[in-house]
Amino acid sequence: MAKYAAAVDQGTTSTRFMIFTQKGEVVAVDQKEHEQIYPKPGWVEHDPLEIWQRTQDVIMDALAKGRVSPGDLSGVGVTNQRETAVIWNRKTGKPVYNAIVWQDTRTDTICNQLAQDGGQDRFRAKTGLPLATYFSGPKIKWILDNVTGVRASAERGDAIFGNIDTWVIWWLTGGPNGGVHVTDVSNASRTMLMNLDTLDWDAEILKVMGVPRAMLPQIRPSSEVYGTARGALSGVPVAGDLGDQQAALFGQTCFGVGEAKNTYGTGNFMLLNTGEKAVQSRHGLLTTVGYRIGAQKPVYALEGAIAITGALVQWLRDNLGMIAKSADIETLAKTVDDNGGIYFVPAFSGLFAPYWKSDARGVIVGLTRYVNKGHLARAALEATAFQTREVLDAMNKDSGVTLTSLKVDGGMVHNDLLMQFQADILGVPVIRPKVAETTSLGAAYAAGLATDLWSKVDDLRANWAKDKEWGPQMPTDMRDKLYRGWLKAVTRTFDWLET
Predict the structure, then answer these.
(1) Terminal C-alpha separation, the chain
(2) Can you tell me the distance from the alpha carbon of 428 to that of 409, in angstroms, rounded to the nearest whole number?
(3) Which of 15, 36, 66, 483 has its CA 20 to 30 A from that of 59?
């Protein structure tokens, strides 16, 4: 009898496969990085075939590590870097172009052209999203407009689109040999092409964007059996699909209205459950679908998306060589007592929430001869906490709900210095669960719910357990002073690129 649930977690920099018990405990995990491709300034791409190869590798290695057979798995879920767009040939499985990553800014001109009629919020009432380079729709348009022959192929239904979840599920279920072409409501809500009310592709927006409906996947619930896996997972139901941040919301068991989580990864993403009502933001947040379980009503969320947090640590490691590995950032930052008066605003691909300024670029302000690399390391970590404070402030204004604590997850939550500073700058406790990789857990939960490993969401709540809590220790006047300095620094990034 099946006793585990599993998840493919396809992220921006790596792919992992995790297997969980019915109590939400980790049985086995394997993870492998893939190449980041930067053809031009502001362009970020991935090789979809490399991602699929890494996916197969981590599945086989995790099964071997855990001595788990496919028959032990009730189902497998998929979670993914959202908004990263792939178009491929349905018959061959060959991509027509590299995947265009969510961080990529090449569609800036397309977004500006679309905004000439109706402004940046032209589609917000329907989609919950501003016109921004972040989302998949403009990326699809860019490929259709710039790669020879793709538009005609898409109109015939031969060239098909998916975010990375769709790409992985298609291959898991057979690829060119009967692969299922689906996405879920959470991922579809990140394309700028889905209507939040109907949960279907919006004909008017498709026409404006010039995207043929024939190339789009079928939109399904987040927890439902889509098909059966082949290959290493042969016979296992593929039964869950959630964008990574929605998966983390699910894994943190934020099933009640007003419950929120913040994920610290390549970027940072805070989501607040708003229940069965889509709340339109007035303060720069995104309205998104949180999840949908089978035939139940969808649950919506407000989201604050921050483009660069963990990626800034990687930049210090890879581009400047300041540290040998990402974990070294904490040791380096602890060599100083404060930021030395500097702020590092990492607007490498513009600013996301709450500003949505694609013409912003990164700055370091307040430099003096006194500043050393320890101060730079500390300012880089503090940037993550300051950006989170901006999003939390906007969330409080939009929802009318004042958060009393923040559940956190992701790779950076093992950095004690950052977590303490986060509690200090927010003025509320920060709580880390025992299973910090809640993205994978959420996708496994979705698959297990669809295949009866768990019967209801209350079973999942019982699995959640606190690992560590940080309480605020900073005096209020110091908190306010530091935050004022941050807000001033952010204004220095505005309007850097000339349009």
Answers:
(1) 61
(2) 16
(3) 36
User: Quick one: which of 378, 381, 370, 386 has its CA closest to 332?
Assistant: 378
The per-residue pLDDT for range 181-224, each reduced to its tens digit, is 999 999 999 999 999 999 999 999 999 999 999 999 999 999 99
Nearest partner of 140 among 231, 200, 215, 81, judged by Cα: 215
* Amino acid at site 265: G
Q: Do residues 228 and 235 touch, judged by C-beta distance below 8 A?
A: yes
Separation CA 433–CA 440 (nearest Å): 14
Can you tell me the distance from the alpha carbon of 324 to that of 317, in angstroms, rounded to the nearest whole number?
6
Which tokens is 294 given?
A: 């089978």
Q: Which residues contact 207 (CB under 8 A, 6 or more apart)?
A: none
Query: What is d(CA 244, CA 310) in angstroms, rounded to the nearest whole number?
Result: 15
Residues listed for the chain: 499
> What is the C-alpha separation between 430 and 242, in angstroms, rounded?
25
> Is the Cβ–Cβ distance between 435 and 24 less than 8 Å?
yes
Q: Which distant-in-sequence residues (6+ apart) come within 8 Å of 114 by Cβ?
A: 122, 131, 138, 208, 209
* Residue-wise DSSP of 443-490: HHHHHHHHTTSSSSHHHHHTT--EEEEE---S-HHHHHHHHHHHHHHH
| 165: amino acid identity, one letter | D
Nearest to 29 by CA among 54, 4, 59: 59
Q: pTM for the complete prediction?
A: 0.87
Q: Is 24 left (phi over 0), alpha (psi -120 to 50) or beta?
A: left
The two three-digit tokens of residue 422, written as one number: 């986060």
Place of tokens 């290959």: 231
